[in-house]
């Protein structure tokens, strides 16, 4: 594949950046547990940048950039390494959404790699005796498993924009799985949260509970089965999943979950078939675009609701000068815009292959204006707020149908952001849904299966109103994933970012963007700022930094209702500076802190 020619980029600094020293990855990047690079949340330098939640994963991407690969190659390498070190968040058993900026054409492209329901699925997929299954029963079952989209996403990205073969970019992750990585407190804690499930599936127990015990912090965790799976994918291609032996193993596992009979757990069988795997395809599609403060904000179109919901909220906020607002005024406006956008998301967004999704109308300024006028400075809207009609915006806030509650989405997705020396950029969010997915490991293959189908509505919230997110044959469940790339007036990248967090992904991206663009925060500080998340619910969730702040009581005085959430999201981002320099930023504390790296801190090294 032709690699874009190098170009001299004149960076646009939207926010001031007080950094004088760049941090580069060590020369020997992916040495596993014996040489795990340190985690730092900020790095500035040249030759490209990678930011993820994990140091070994970021180092895998840097290794590919250092040897001449481009941003797409490095993104796939980083994602594969996250499948090793973040197996409860992502892996070949899941799916995701990939946003790519091409420096040569100065255009943004996307891949919808969302999992799909079996071709035999119908709207009653999660009904039993006419009633919705308990959520926990649905998650830990074959019923929750959608056809994986991650391997196909990797292959599509490499075939379309990459410069290296799949086998080459999988090698760092393959080595990491074989040699092992160092267990940290986050990995142990997430394992502990899944212990009750994992122990009931012998293959999950063998892998994640060695000797029947939780992995010890500081010990080396190896996954030789996954190393062999990566080796097979590198050798035979992703056809090994969609038309081969790995796929046969997936189907067998879904349809007869290998649960320990003595556990007493009822693990309902799924209905996945080899025909489902053969029929799966990613979708190369246009991004959403929103104009905000003279910038172009590009993200994922449906089946994800991320681009339309973040975009609508930005359009609502665009009529207010947030740079001059007090912190109380800023948070009030941000919370109310989120509330409104989520009300509209719940009514209108689903898989466009099955639903008539008015994405263009949701992103129109006319519709945003008809909703923005609902916001008052001295009062709070009541949730659940009824949606508007984007095709026929009425007088100020004329309500439409009764509001639908937000579908629960698991929070343990992962996000990575990559830039290369040619100016190409990738924002990629991938997931297996809940922490630990379905809890079911494919025997001998070393990866967990997703539970993405629980992102569907189990039953209509209001039988009188059409729900666009009910299951269907081959249908993609609605997502909140919001990988975002922002361009300046010359279609040059300014910043790219994204986050895990289920439905809180949308609010995390929105708050981080407005913090960076409107409030003038350096990117790493916009990521670290304490978060609020309002998703058309009675109460807005606050992280401790806001919960314990005087701002909470100030906002409560005008009617806001809050509840505490210890941690919302785990964002990463990259920012283009001047003359080919990049800034990579990650979390300072959340999920144990993230890992930002650049190829070299000095030009020409």
UniProtKB/TrEMBL annotation:
Pfam families: G_glu_transpept. Keywords: Acyltransferase, Glutathione biosynthesis, Hydrolase, Signal, Transferase, Zymogen. It catalyses: an N-terminal (5-L-glutamyl)-[peptide] + an alpha-amino acid = 5-L-glutamyl amino acid + an N-terminal L-alpha-aminoacyl-[peptide]; an S-substituted glutathione + H2O = an S-substituted L-cysteinylglycine + L-glutamate; glutathione + H2O = L-cysteinylglycine + L-glutamate. L-glutamate binds at residues 114, 455, 479-480, 502. Its EC number is 2.3.2.2, 3.4.19.13. Residues 1-23 form the signal peptide. The active site is at residue 413. Pathway: Sulfur metabolism; glutathione metabolism. GO terms for biological process: glutathione biosynthetic process; glutathione catabolic process. Cleaved by autocatalysis into a large and a small subunit. It comes from the Bacteria. SUPFAM superfamilies: N-terminal nucleophile aminohydrolases (Ntn hydrolases). GO terms for molecular function: glutathione hydrolase activity; leukotriene C4 gamma-glutamyl transferase activity. The keyword Protease does not apply. PANTHER family: GLUTATHIONE HYDROLASE (PTHR43199), GLUTATHIONE HYDROLASE PROENZYME (PTHR43199:SF1). Belongs to the gamma-glutamyltransferase family. This enzyme consists of two polypeptide chains, which are synthesized in precursor form from a single polypeptide. This is Glutathione hydrolase proenzyme. The gene is ggt.
């Amino acid at each position: 594949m032709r690699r874009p020619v190098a170009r001299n980029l004149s960076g646009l600094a939207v926010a001031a950046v007080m950094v004088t020293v760049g941090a580069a990855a060590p020369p020997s990047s992916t040495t596993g547990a014996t040489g795990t690079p340190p985690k730092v949340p900020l790095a500035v330098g040249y030759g490209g940048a990678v930011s993820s939640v994990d140091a070994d994963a970021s180092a895998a991407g840097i290794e590919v950039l250092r040897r001449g690969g481009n941003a797409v190659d490095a993104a796939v390498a980083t994602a594969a390494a996250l499948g090793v070190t973040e197996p409860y968040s992502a892996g070949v058993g899941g799916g995701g959404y990939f946003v790519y900026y091409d420096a040569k054409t100065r255009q943004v492209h996307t891949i919808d790699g969302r999992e799909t329901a079996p071709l035999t699925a119908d709207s009653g997929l999660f009904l039993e005796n006419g009633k919705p299954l308990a959520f926990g029963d649905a998650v830990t079952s074959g019923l929750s498993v959608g056809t994986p989209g991650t391997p196909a996403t990797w292959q599509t990205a490499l075939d379309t924009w990459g410069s290296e073969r799949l086998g080459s970019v999988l090698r760092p992750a393959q080595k990491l799985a074989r040699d092992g990585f160092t267990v940290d407190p986050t990995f142990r804690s997430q394992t502990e949260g899944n212990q009750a499930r994992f122990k009931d599936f012998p293959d999950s127990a063998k892998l994640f509970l060695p000797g029947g015990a939780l992995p010890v912090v500081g010990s080396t965790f190896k996954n030789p089965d996954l190393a062999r799976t990566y080796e097979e994918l590198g050798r035979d291609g992703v056809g090994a999943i969609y038309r081969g032996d790995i796929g046969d193993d997936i189907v067998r596992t879904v349809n007869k979950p290998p649960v320990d009979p003595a556990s007493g757990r009822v693990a309902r069988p799924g209905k996945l078939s080899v025909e489902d795997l053969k029929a799966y395809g990613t979708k190369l599609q246009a991004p959403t675009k929103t104009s905000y403060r003279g910038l172009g904000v590009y993200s994922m179109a449906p089946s994800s609701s991320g681009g339309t919901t973040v975009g609508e909220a930005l359009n609502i906020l665009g009529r207010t000068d947030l740079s001059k607002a007090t912190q109380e005024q800023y948070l009030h406006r941000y919370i109310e815009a989120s509330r409104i956008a989520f009300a509209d998301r719940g009514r209108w967004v689903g898989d466009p292959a099955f639903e008539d999704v008015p994405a263009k109308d949701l992103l129109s300024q006319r519709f945003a204006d008809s909703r923005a006028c609902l916001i008052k400075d001295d009062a709070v809207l009541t949730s659940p707020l009824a949606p508007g009609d984007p095709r026929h915006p009425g007088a100020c806030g004329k309500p439409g149908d009764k509001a639908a509650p937000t579908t629960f989405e698991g929070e343990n997705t992962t996000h990575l952001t990559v830039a290369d020396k040619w100016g190409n950029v990738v924002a990629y969010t991938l997931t297996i849904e809940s922490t630990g997915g379905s809890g079911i490991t494919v025997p001998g293959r070393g990866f967990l299966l997703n539970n993405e189908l629980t992102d569907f509505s189990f039953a209509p919230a209001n039988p009188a109103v059409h729900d666009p997110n009910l299951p269907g044959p081959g249908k993609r469940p609605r997502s909140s994933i919001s990988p975002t790339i922002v361009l300046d007036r010359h279609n040059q990248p300014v910043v790219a970012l994204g986050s895990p967090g289920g439905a809180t992904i949308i609010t995390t991206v929105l708050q981080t963007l407005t913090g960076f663009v409107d409030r003038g925060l350096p990117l790493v500080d916009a990521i670290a700022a304490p978060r609020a998340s309002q998703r058309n619910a009675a109460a807005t969730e606050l992280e401790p930094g806001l919960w314990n702040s005087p701002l909470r009581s100030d906002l409560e005085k005008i009617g806001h209702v809050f509840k505490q959430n210890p941690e919302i999201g785990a964002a990463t981002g990259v920012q283009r500076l001047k003359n080919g320099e990049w800034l990579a930023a990650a979390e300072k504390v959340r999920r144990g802190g993230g890992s930002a790296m650049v190829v070299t801190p000095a030009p020409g090294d």
